[in-house]
Specification:
Layout lengths: L27 H11 L21 E2 L2 E2 L17 E7 L14 E11 L5 E11 L11 E5 L11 H6 L2 E3 L4 E3 L3 H9 L3 E8 L13 H17 L11 E6 L1 H16 L7 E5 L5 H8 L7 H12 L4 H7 L2 H10 L4 H8 L14 H7 L1 H8 L12 E6 L7 H13 L4 E6 L10 H22 L16
Parallel strand pairs: 6-9, 6-10, 10-11, 11-12, 12-13
Antiparallel strand pairs: 1-2, 3-4, 4-5, 5-9, 7-8
GO molecular function, one term: triacylglycerol lipase activity
Keywords: Signal
Protein name: Triacylglycerol lipase
Length: 467
């Protein structure tokens, strides 16, 4: 399976032999899942990108023209976190205020990071300087927000979601659902930097979905980039927190584990890791056949790009329908994937009719690749809060709880919060998304306490004997 390495013109990612899959009828239950996603978006008018007048050689992803800002230069700076470029970012949800726009002034960023292969990579994101004053102890703090699953198309990038909270043009639908957490932090006077991750937004490569090294590095380097931004009120004395749920929870968990070796200059006051996909071999089983089944395609394509030795295995095991679906998915946002591929079973995409989890178990290289992504083997830096819905059937509760227990075993202060709710429907995403909304206020309060210098108490005793 040849994964895409670049996006150019209107053709989308180049993936040898892969053709778009057929559109399927939308079951009514998918509408409920999409509504649950849309419910996270703050009220706003839909931003519908207009086609450019006349011929254009700009990068186009499902009819959305990606601004030239997102094209990485041929050469990047040497230092991780170095700013490549920046420009003002108009927030889609903003009001005039006596001291400037509310909730703050935003800047689009491109900065240098290092990918899983040790190579330089350009990453985009956004920094928002809040209008609200910081009333806690010490100078204004900074929180790096690691977005949850947005998709794999460049139009899905979280920084574009800040500019266009809802994007819909008949070919793609994207909701900037992380805007809620960003705005709640800004209201508390906390500066925020959001990463788009490697390959999401930037037009030179495919997004490497749930790759712990790419994501952890991108989060830590976003902090470094924000500190270097001219005019930013944060600096080396500002306390730093990390916030993320789902894919973002895995990214912040990875960043907390990698801080000592990769970014010792980024001291962490606290890390929130909600619903972290700590054990991908287990998460694959939960995603398969669910509303988020399309994420399997993002994972396969991203890992093949990062680890070319897996290409032969993927090519041998993915059939023509699967290859067409993965090519199609490579330009989709999460809403598109739910509408087109929700509840798909992976055995329909494989040559032998086996689910992807069985293929992983049978292929030593695949097992090793997923095992290398396992979170919980390194001690995180600073206090951490792990929250997970006890009914979560997408990013399973048991494997997230095990991450908290593993960190406790390594002697870190862990606050573990099981979000106990009734079963809201198998595979619909509701058991995964509702805990985010229910727990978000408490999670942000916990994080702002750490940013104010208040010590965290360990909750490891509540985890009992699970190790």
């Amino acid at each position: 399976m040849a994964a895409a390495s670049s996006h150019s013109g209107n053709s989308g990612p180049r993936t040898a032999g892969w053709r778009p899959a057929r559109r399927r009828r939308l079951p009514a239950v998918l509408l409920a899942a999409v509504a649950c996603l849309a419910a996270q978006a703050m009220p706003a008018s839909a931003a519908t990108p207009q086609p450019a007048e006349g011929p254009s050689d700009r990068t186009d992803s499902r009819g959305v023209e990606i601004p030239a800002f997102y094209d990485p230069p041929a050469h990047l700076p040497g230092a991780d976190g170095a700013l490549v470029r920046s420009e003002p970012l108009p927030l889609g949800l903003s009001l005039p205020g006596p001291g400037g726009p509310l909730p703050g002034e935003a800047t689009r960023l491109m900065y240098k990071s290092t990918d899983a292969g040790g190579d330089p990579v350009a990453v985009t994101g956004a920094y928002i300087e809040p209008s609200a004053a910081w009333k806690g102890d010490g100078p204004r703090p900074l929180v790096a927000v690691a977005p949850g699953t947005m998709g794999q198309g460049d139009q899905c990038a979280a920084s574009l979601g800040l500019e266009h909270p809802i994007t819909f043009n008949g070919r793609t639908v994207s909701v900037g659902y992380e805007d809620i957490a960003v705005y709640r932090l800004l209201a508390a006077g906390v500066a925020v930097v959001v990463t788009d991750y490697a390959g999401l937004g930037t037009t030179d490569r495919l997004h490497t979905y749930v790759n712990r090294l790419d994501e952890g590095h991108a989060v830590l380097d976003a902090v470094r980039a924000a500190r270097k931004l001219p005019g930013a009120s944060v600096g080396s004395r500002s306390r730093v927190g990390l916030y993320g749920y789902s894919q973002g929870g895995g990214a912040t968990a990875s960043a907390a584990e990698l801080q000592r070796s990769y970014a010792p200059d980024v001291d962490l006051a606290g890390t929130y890791s909600g619903a972290p996909p700590a054990d991908l071999a287990e998460v694959v089983k939960g995603i398969d056949g669910s509303a988020l089944a399309g994420a399997l395609g993002w994972s396969v394509s991203g890992f093949v790009q990062s680890y070319p030795e897996l290409e032969e295995i993927a090519d041998r095991n993915v059939n023509a329908e699967g290859k067409a679906a993965m090519k199609d998915l490579s330009t989709m946002c999460v809403g598109d994937a739910i509408l087109r591929y929700g509840f798909k079973r992976s055995e329909e995409w494989t040559t032998g009719g086996r689910p992807i989890s069985e293929i992983v178990a049978a292929e030593p290289k695949l097992r090793a690749a997923l095992d290398a992504q396992r979170l919980g083997r390194l001690k995180p830096t600073g206090p951490v809060r792990v929250a997970t819905g006890t009914q979560d059937d997408i990013v399973g509760h048991a494997q997230a709880r095990r991450l908290a227990a593993d960190w406790c075993d390594k002697g870190e202060d862990v606050t573990y919060k099981p979000v106990e709710l009734p079963d809201l429907g198998d595979g619909l995403l509701t058991n995964h998304l509702v805990p985010l909304l229910v727990d978000q206020g408490e999670a942000i309060s916990w994080l702002t306490d750490r940013l104010s210098g208040r010590a965290a108490s360990s909750g490891c005793g509540a985890l009992g004997g699970q190790r």
